[in-house]
Each structure stands twice: as structure tokens, then as C-alpha cells.
Amino acid sequence: MSTLSVFMDVPLAQKLEGSLLKTYKKDDCPNKMFLAYKVCMTKKGQPWVSSVVHKIRLQIAEDPSLNYEYIPVMGMKSFIQASLELLFGKHSQVIVENRGGGVHTVGDSGAFQLGAQFLKTWRRDSQVVYIISSQKEPHGLIFQDMGFTVYEYSFWDSTQLCLDPNMLLSVAEQAPRGCVFVIGNIGNCKLTPSQWAKFMATMKSKQIFPFFDIPYQGLSTGDLEEDTRFLEYFVSQGFEFFCSQSLSKNFGIYDEGVGILVVVALNNELLLCVLSQLMNFARALWLNPPTTGARIITSILCNPALQGEWKQSLKEVAENIMMIKEKVKEKLRLLGTPGSWDHITHQNGTHSYLGLSSQQVEYLVKKKHIYVPKNGRINFTCINAYNIDYITQSINEAVLFTMDSENLQKVNDSLE
Amino acid sequence: MSTLSVFMDVPLAQKLEGSLLKTYKKDDCPNKMFLAYKVCMTKKGQPWVSSVVHKIRLQIAEDPSLNYEYIPVMGMKSFIQASLELLFGKHSQVIVENRGGGVHTVGDSGAFQLGAQFLKTWRRDSQVVYIISSQKEPHGLIFQDMGFTVYEYSFWDSTQLCLDPNMLLSVAEQAPRGCVFVIGNIGNCKLTPSQWAKFMATMKSKQIFPFFDIPYQGLSTGDLEEDTRFLEYFVSQGFEFFCSQSLSKNFGIYDEGVGILVVVALNNELLLCVLSQLMNFARALWLNPPTTGARIITSILCNPALQGEWKQSLKEVAENIMMIKEKVKEKLRLLGTPGSWDHITHQNGTHSYLGLSSQQVEYLVKKKHIYVPKNGRINFTCINAYNIDYITQSINEAVLFTMDSENLQKVNDSLE
């Protein structure tokens, strides 16, 4: 057929991510393992789901009184209210003064998309975004595609092997007035009270707009309140802000798009204006958010017994993560692996840095078929009783190998 | 507190829709009724859900082997494949030649959002969109917000009381080369073979890009194949096109965002390029589409017995719609309501025009508390054995009242 295609100028898009997983899948080695899953894994190597979720999912399916009609653009009111109380605490100023609200979004990408659209329209004079997190975040591209100038910074200091709060302070000092700070798990950074004070003073004087990312409240420390305590500092200092709150990971409902774009304003009137504008954007993006996940979560959060059960399950996950990290550190110590491995247990949450060089990571991937991202940040819940020995022995080998090759290099250099 | 709000310049957004429903909800009259629900209603006035959906929802909740991990950006492969086969038929050229594909989107708004983003980027030289449908469509705003020049046309000819295929032909003749035609339920327009030939020849010679809207395959005629037969004409003529396929209404899963942006290209290679670009947009919009609805639908479509049961439920709905329309017409005839009401039974599907003037609609809303949109297009499944008498009597009254007032006006005019 001689017809020219409408699509003849459309090239194949570059794959943005997932190449490590693809290589892993193609690998024929029976010992291969993947340590970069996004979701929390059980001791048996399955994606974790809070036990209470199974029960409620079944209850919902059995309920003949439920209807499945379209829900409002903003989402289920009860879901948003319950999630806000979880984020801030029932007695927070934000809740009591009725100046916090939210829009149910399709996952956290949806929350960033919606927030970015709002900021693009309503903060025209400042289209600069700083993304500061423990790692490279996918929402960087969302802001970039929308025409923002994006700068990305990582808390992780690969020389000192720690999350560095000073980085945050120096970035705030050099950032232009009125820009946006998208801040990932700052709670893990362990700022001192005086660092907090300094950081907030700089943000305030420069009118920097905070946009927090809360990807898994409760999975960092195992304590829901502890994980979002820092939000209260910003509330008490009179900040207005956005927050992407995802409830996928801490309930184990990864595939249902349960995110919320949270808005905190100075008063209820301002809040309603912002929410009304966000609804117009949401209407064009997806019109009605999906309900299954929201329905499950609301049923759990609104029932004290179920909520207690869920909190207990989170605590167990967090304790298990800490135990895995302790064991990894202990095994490396017993193997006599050179270096201190305290940085492993100093980090909270499922995903933490191993503190390996890119050469060491390459050794693990190529020689040992252990798939680790280039930056060495792995999901510790991928490590379990069945694979911990192979993994720690391989890390030991990688470290020794690179030391040998460095020494060899030094010898070679001195001979030249 | 003297702090100025970041949001001080953000006004309350205008409400775009839903005002009729709001007025209805505020109405205290016990006889009030709303005839404009988007979803198909049962004889008892509840949102319709295909009986087979309940069963599968329960089965899925009971299945311990399922995992709820993130699904790929493009969606569940099996869901997309089953939906494409439903749309085109298993033996369509598109399927056999592997040149049709799709991306799972959050509902049909998501499909238009995604399609519009693609066209914005890859058809830069022509940013004109014609939206041609039975009514004003919400996706007009999606294209408009993205900067397209949008023209909207309705198939409905309120003078002749019919859907007019000639309108389509004349719009195609005056439209500029290379523009986009978003075409709503054209299947209901009953074009003759020669009208089809003329329409497609004009589209082809002007390189107009078709973007079809299939909001509820099977609910127009009760026959799934019949409802999308026209797509095959475009395929056989070598057209490339997009199609928004929604599976919410024909399964009765309204709240789960089950849409697909379908792509038909001239060959597989071109298709893969287009899909890869769409995936990049989807990644920024919501990253992973929600799965509950997709999972239910796939289970039904991939099982011949369940698929048969579902088809039967669709047929029953379509038959019920036709029966309601026949009854409305018959009751108006018995009441001696002036005018021919054949146009009611000449239209297919849940939503059809009553063929009332704006004055008659106003009479129904204000005097009878029957909430009908201004254009008089109602959801016929909102009419049932309990309310049909009140509704038809009220229509009769409205027609007589406006005739009287018109006559009175004529008398007044002649006296002046």
C-alpha cells in the first residue's frame, strides 16, 4: 500500500527506566536476584500486603448494598478526611482550623502532575523547582516536561556515607526567591532543632514553596506519627504547602492508584479556592479517580480495631527491615569485610544505600547476578533468610576485588 | 497573623458541570426526579451492574494467589488484548496484522487527555479539533485547555428531530486539511453506504485524523459487533486512527477508570513507535493505571461462558431501553400529546433526545420537578414503571402549556 503514515515522523521513545529489571529478567543464571523492587517484600519474597487489606477486600466484594457509580472529581470525602487525619493527626491545627484539604489522585505521579499543573498556572513568575530527595525521583520529569527549570539534589553523601542535612541548608541559601522545593523523606535526615529553625527561616524569607513527598508514612520508623512529625513544624510556622501523600506502599495496595494531593492554606477560604482550581485540572486528567483502593483504606482507617491491626502490621514490617539491616551488617563484620557498615543501620525505611562504589555495584551485577541500581540504593526487604548469605558473601567479594584492583592500579601507577 | 498567603491571587473556579444535579438535590419536592444520570439505571432505579461482574469481583477478592504489585505503565497486556478483540473482532485486519494496540487509561477522560497530548506534540502543524457528537462532550475542554482550536457540532437536528448525517459531510468539506475529528457515536447516525463513501473520501483527501469515541459498546443496539462495525470501514480504507474505548458503562464498573486509548497504525513498527511515546505521557500522568476494573473485565472477556452471560445482560439492557421508549411514545399517543414522537424510538442507546424546546424543558424542571438537561437529552433508563405516568403526563402538560402560550403570543402579536 502506498499510503503514507500519519505517524511516519514519530520515533521510538527512549525507555526511561526499568532497564535493570529487563536485564534481570533476561538473565538465565539460576542464582540471579533483583534487589531494586519498588514494593515492600515479605520474608518469602512476595509483595507485602497488610493482612487486614485481604479481609476488607473480601468484605467489600460481598457487600450487596454498595453501588459503583462515578464518584466526585475530588474523590471520596471520607477517604480524604481519614487520610488527612492520618497525615497530620486529628488534633492538628490544620484539621481543627479546617484549612487542610486534598484531592484524590491516581497515585503519587498523579499528585505531582496535578500539583505541577497548579503551580504552572498560579505561580507564573517563578518556574524553578528544586527536587531534593534520597535518590533521583521520577517526578523530576513531570516538572521538566511542563517547562519548569528543574534542579535535583540527593541527600546522600557518598563520601561520608550518610544523609546530609547540611546539603538542604546550602541549597536553600543559594535557591532563588519564590521557587518550589519538592522535598522527599526529609524525616530520615535527622535535622537538629537548630538546623530545622535555620532551614525554615531561609525558606520563609525567600518565600520558597514546599511540596512534600510522603511516599510511605509509617514504613520509615514503624511509627506513623513520627514519620510525619516534621509537617507540624511547617504548620506551626504558618507555611502553606502541598504534599503528595501515597497510601499504596503502607497498605500494600500498589496497583490501585491511591494518592492524594494535600493542600494546606492559611484559612478555609483560600483552601476552597485552591481545591476548586485543582478539581478543574483533575477533571481534564481523569475525571473520576478509581475507588477500590480508597474504599479499602477508608474502611480500615475509620474502624479503630482495624486501624490498630494495620498499625501493628506496619510496625512488624519496620522491625523486620531493621533486623535485616542488622543481620547484613553483622554478616559483613563476621566475613571481615573492610570498612564500617554502620551506615546501613543508620538509615530508615525499606530502601537504603549499601554504600558501594559503582565498580562494586558492577561486580555484583556482572559477576554475581545480583541486580543493584548504579547508586547502590537497594530495597532491603528483598533480602531474606534464603539469600542473605549469598548476598553478603558477594558484597564482601566485590569489596575485596575492587580493593585488589585499586592496589594493583597503585602498583602499576608507581611502576610507570 | 500578618503573613500574606501564597494563594491570595487564586480565585474560586467556576463549576463546569453538575449544576442540574445540585439543584435537584436541593429541591425539597417529594416527587422530584432526575433524568440525566450518566450511568445506566435498573428498573428499580439503581445504577446497573452486569450480574456477572458481582460474581467475578468476589472471586478475585477470594483468590489468594493474586498479587497487587504495580502493573506496567501501559496496563495489563491481557486486558488490552481482550478489549481490542472486543472492539474490532478477533479476525479483524487490525488484530491479524498486529497493527492495533492500546494503552490502559484512567477512564475515557484519561484516553482523551493522553491522545490530546500526543497530537499536541506530534501534529504540531495542525492544532484544530472538530468534536462531532450527539451532545456537548466534556473532552472539548481537554483539547481547548491544551491550546487546540476547538469547534463543536451536534448530530442532533432539533428542527427535523433526528440525528443528521449530512451535517457530518458538510463539516468535513469545510474543515481545514490535517485537522482532527473527534467523532462520537456515529453508529447511531445511520449513514447510507454512499454517505459513508463520500465521508471517508473527504477525510482521506484532506488527511483528517479520526479520533473515535466508543463510550459504551453494546449498549446502543444490544449487539457488540453492530455498535462498532463502522470502525472496520475505516480499517479497510487504510485509515490510521485513535479511539477512546471505555468499558465502564457496558460492564457497570463506573468508578474504576477502565478506559483504553486505542491506536491503529499502518504497520506494527509504526504502532510500536506511537505506543512508546504514549507510555512516556502516561508515565507522567499516573504512572500505573488502576487494576481492579481491568482485572474483572479481563476475567469475563477471556472466559467464553462468562462472556456469553455478559453479552446476554447487555442485550437485556438494550431491549429494556427500547421497551421504555416504546411505552413513553405510546403513552404520549394515548394522552393525545400533539406532535409525532417517533424520534424517541428512532434513537438508539440509553441517552436520547426527547425533542422538547427549551421552554418545555423549563416547564418540566420548574413546574414538575423533573430534572432534564436544557437540550432535552435524557437517560431513558431513569424512566421506570413507578414514574412513567407522571413523566409522560408532565411532558404532555409542558407541550400543551407552551402551545397555549405560543398561541397567546400570536393573539397578542395580532392585537398590537
Automatic annotation (TrEMBL), chains A, B:
Presence of the UniProt keyword Methyltransferase in the record: no
Protein name: Putative aspartate aminotransferase, cytoplasmic 2
Principal cellular location given in the protein's record: cytoplasm
Organism in which the protein naturally occurs: Equus caballus (Horse)
Family: Belongs to the class-I pyridoxal-phosphate-dependent aminotransferase family.
Domain Aminotransferase class I/classII large: 46-395
Gene behind the chain: GOT1L1
GO biological process: aspartate biosynthetic process
InterPro entries for this protein: Aminotransferase_I/II_large, Asp_trans, PyrdxlP-dep_Trfase, PyrdxlP-dep_Trfase_major, PyrdxlP-dep_Trfase_small
CC annotations in GO: cytosol
